[in-house]
Every structure is written in structure tokens, then in C-alpha cells.
Amino acid sequence: MTFDDLHLGSILVSTVRNAPVLIFAGMAGLFAERSGVIDIGLEGKILASAFVSAAVAYLTQNPWSGIAAGMLVSVLLATLQAYVAITQKGNQLVAGIAINIAMSGLTFVVAQYIFQQGGRTPDIGSARLFDVVLPGTAAIRDVPFIGWVYAHLIGGHSVLVYLAFALVPLVHWLLYHTRFGLRLRACGENPHAADAAGVNVARQRYTTMIVAGVLCSFSGAYLSIVQSGFFLRDMSAGAGYLALTAMVFGNWRPLYTFLGCLMFGFFAAVQIQIEGVDLPVVGRLPGSLIQMVPYVVTVIVLAGLMAKSVAPKALGTPFVKSR
User: Fold this and answer.
1) Where does the chain cross the membrane (predicted)?
2) Count of other CB atoms within 10 angstroms of residue 5
3) CA distance 62 to 182
4) Is 2 helix (H, G, I), strand (E, B) or coil?
5) pLDDT tens digit string along 173-232?
6) What are the pLDDT digits (tens) for 109-155?
7) What's this model's pTM, rounded to 2 decimal places?
8) Is residue 133 a part of any domain in this protein?
9) Residues 6+ apart with CB under 8 A from 163
10) Number of structural domains found in the chain
11) Three-class SS of residue 306?
12) 254-274 vs 293-305: helix crossing angle, rounded to 10
């Protein structure tokens, strides 16, 4: 394969299919951190929900039962994280990292114990979520450009892809145009003022963490039930951390966080496309070097934008009610 064989269309379609993992996790982290809780445990919740979703979908041959089971375990982890951070007022970074490390090992051990396939689950086969074919696809498929955009770029994706993209305006509306969003943002910016206004800060943060757990579960389910069709050890490959980076890139705002997720999804698609390709001047790059692309972009983004990003003022600070 040569450089000329690369197709922009394939990269765009791959971008759309890569982005949902980051979008769900990014919106989950956004909810948690706008309420004042650092959610560095996204990676662990993605792994846990990916494993449970794949295992239950395989055993029941029903993708929706797998998604529901993944949601349950993600919410349980989010609740545990909230208990440590909110009720016990523990170190939020340590709690999140502990969840990441524990789930990285535990999912592998449990998968090996149950399925005896080297720490992965069997292929879930027909339990994978099917792609949606939009109405009228066959009629306009052969129309130049428009037919391709409608059939492949807009259509032909799993229902979770459409849910991820629909989630962005919904989160924006919830945060900036509802009472729930106003209280949530107040807890992250000035919890004492929110408490004085009658907001139960602890309850608001718990609720937000549960919502974050639900959203994060979709990332894991998408990885195992849509993209791969099975669970593999550490298959999230840093998606939780990339989602946090997208959130910093987006200055803790839904629309800009979404753009950050698309950016990382695009570079992940480029990474896949250039494997085995003879590039101009440099020739064929080693696979290990190509796999570094998204993470190099992450470092560049953090180095360039960290100073310009303004986090919620009470982020990471346990709330102690004034007497």
C-alpha cells in the first residue's frame, strides 16, 4: 500500500466510529468534575463495563442485557468512588487511580477464571449490536458524494454511535439551561454558596457521579459489543485518560470537549490508516511508532492548553458544611 491509497473517506468514517468511546467517557468526566469531583477513574470503569457487557452478552446472547449489566457495575464503581470522595472526604486522585489499577487486574483474572481463554471473553457473535440502515439508503446510494455521505458517514453505524452524538447537545442543555445544571455547576464552583442557597451538595455530587457511571458504561459496552465483539485485557488502551484530556482541551464545556474527542478519534483513525503505508520521505514507519500518535498528540495538547484551561474552582476539594 502506498500513500496515494489512503482515502479521506475511510478516515472520516473511522473517526465517527472511534469517537463514541471518548464522547461517552468525556461527558461522564464532565458531569463529575463540574460538580467538583475529580474523575480520574474513567479508565477503570470503562474496563469493568466492557468486560461485564461482553461476558453477559455472550452468556445471554442479548446485547441489551450486556449493556445493562455493564451499566450496573459502572454505577457501583462510581458510587464507591463517590463514597470515598464525598462521604469520607478522601483523596480523589488516589481513589480514581486505585479503581483503574484494580479493574485492570481484576477483569483479566475473572475473565481467565470464567472463560479460560487467556484473559479474554469468547466472541459474542450474533449478540453484537447491528448497524442501523437509514431509510432511503438504497435509493440514493449511487448519487455522487451525497449517497456516500448518507449511507456511510451518517448511516451504517450502531445505535450507540447516534446516542453518543445526540448526547452532546443534551448535556449542553442540561448544564446551562436547567435547574439541575445550575446546581451542579454551583457545587463545582462555590459549594458553600450552593449550600447557603439550599442545595444539598453531597446529594448533588452523588447524583452526578451516578450519571457519570451510567455514561461511562456506554464507553465500555461500545468497545466490547460494537467495535470488537469480545473483551480483551486493557482494551480501553488509555481511552479514559484521552477523554480527560479532551475535557481539559474543551475547558470543561460539552461542545468543545466533543471537538476534542473528535480530534483524538481522527488521529486514532489516521494511526490505523498509515500502518503498513509507504509515506513520502520517511517511508514505512514501525508499528510501535505509529501507535504513539494519539499519545503524542495528548502531550502536545496538554502542554499547549493546560495553562489556558480554567477548571471548576472547587474541583478536588472535599466539601465541609459550615456550622
Assistant:
1) 6-32, 44-61, 67-86, 93-115, 149-175, 206-225, 231-249, 256-274, 289-307
2) 10
3) 38
4) strand
5) 999 999 999 999 999 999 999 999 999 999 999 999 999 999 999 999 999 999 888 999
6) 999 999 988 888 999 988 888 888 888 877 887 788 788 788 888 88
7) 0.91
8) no
9) 20, 218
10) 1
11) coil
12) 150
